[in-house]
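ugh ok fine here u go
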Amino acid sequence: MAITDYKVSEIYSGRDIASLSDRPNEDGVTASQLKARFDQLGKEVIPNYNDLIDFIETNLFAGGVTDGHSHNIDNIEDGTTNKLFTADDNTKLDGIEVGAEVNQNAFSNVKVGATTISASTKTDTFELVAGLNITLIVDSLTKKVSLSATGELASTAVQTLITDLGNYYTSLEVEGALQEVGLSLEAHEAFINTLKVTTKEPTGFTNNENIDVSYDSTTRKVTLTGTFEAYFNGVLIPELVTGWESPAHADVVGAYYLYYNGTSFVFDTTAWTFDMLMIASIAYGATHKFAIRETHGFMPNSVHQELHDTIGTYKNSGGDFSNVTLNSTTLKQPFISDTYIKDEDLITRLLALGTASYTQMYLSGSVVSTRALAQTQIVPQTTAQANYNLNTAGTWSQQPFGNNDYGAVFVIAVPVTSDIGSQSFRYQFIQPQQVSTNLAIIQALSPSSLNLGTESAVFQEYVFIGKIIIKASVSDWVIYSIEKLEGTKISKVAIPVSSGLSVVSTDATLTGDGTVTTPISVVNDGHTHDGRYYTETETDNLLDLKAPLSSPAFTGNQPTSNGDKLILNEEDDTNPIYKIRNITQVEYDALTPNANTAYFIVG
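structure:
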């Protein structure tokens, strides 16, 4: 039996229900006939449909048909109109997810920084565009895009300048804009350069207070350590970094000033000007050598000089005295706490003095500054008796205190470098330069009374922090009082304004320099009457020759008559020296006698 045998028979054509007349009575169709039509359709069609299904199941999917051929979907030739699925096709269809659609978007969003680009359609295009000085290189074979930058990338400011609402300017417009920017930058640079040359600023160190400055008196070099930068006239000095070491100064006694002048590092014996980059100053003595920190910050040089001249170094904090019992012959070795001093804008911490090891400072010979290190007492001694610094006609020497003499020891603090050698000079005790049994005289002394001798040229950065008055007995001494000194170097060493003379010039008749130590006095050479002073006795003897007030008559060499003249003879009558005419009695009577005056009328 062939599959075509299962077609619905043509006998049903025109015999279906729809073909019946809407008016059965006219066609002669009864109700029973109508029912029979329905029953016949089901009985004939349904069995045939079931047989068809069985046929398909048996012959098409199970291996053959009754026509003598073996057929399945894999060996049926694919036609051009009624195409069939192969087993591979079926497997592929099994791999498709439920609800699958045709090609979708390759991406939904692309995010660049804070900007998100979203696809608009299923076939949207993402485009890369080369920017300023950017080249895109596309390799279609490897499907890669390379970005290459050429020249210098423009800054944000320039990019803003050459774009207009997202649209590019022309090359001429871009070139013109860049030229305008360049000219503006050149003008600005020229102004800055002129300003730096004119003001010589900025010059100084960053983080200056934390720079460690160290001096080696053997190699005669200075080393800087720390995190800092140094500038001269606004230009970075690349050599000045941590570990930098200076050239060596000469091995000759004197003062040395280390600075940078814009081209080289200099150790000069002449003090720098304030527009230089200062680094350190050196006191290089025959025996004692130390250095002072000078790594200042970015003060304008004119301000720096003004502060140096009017304020100088000053104590910021600390510098307290302890470990002393007043009027004790044993507890007289003071300690000093940490002291912070400022040299204009540069602060230096001086470590505490906690042991009886003192640096004494005094003068010797003709104002030569001398120091004694690691001394157990604050003043030089002869046995147990304190000495003071005596000036005898310009020569300084050591002299023991007298019994009940008072004297003042002044203490100075110095911003020295960190090396051990220089640290010995951070606190210095200046020996008394005068003594007195009158306490008020010593209490009135100020640092302005001191002579620092040859050190004044080298020793420019220091501040007085204490005044210690000591009192001597026959064989010992005690500390009578300790006074902390405040203020600045200038305020402590300045000479107070007064109506007195600041400079006194004398001739050979006077001695002394006008100070408390060496007051002015008259030279005693016998007081002869050759234009100098007579003594009181000599003056009285000469005045004895005057006429007595009670009876005014001349004594000694009397005037004699010579015609109408009187001759006053100093030696004899034959060699007259002065000629005066006679005084009449009337004239004389009219005069009031005065013991100190002789009256004559010159003839």
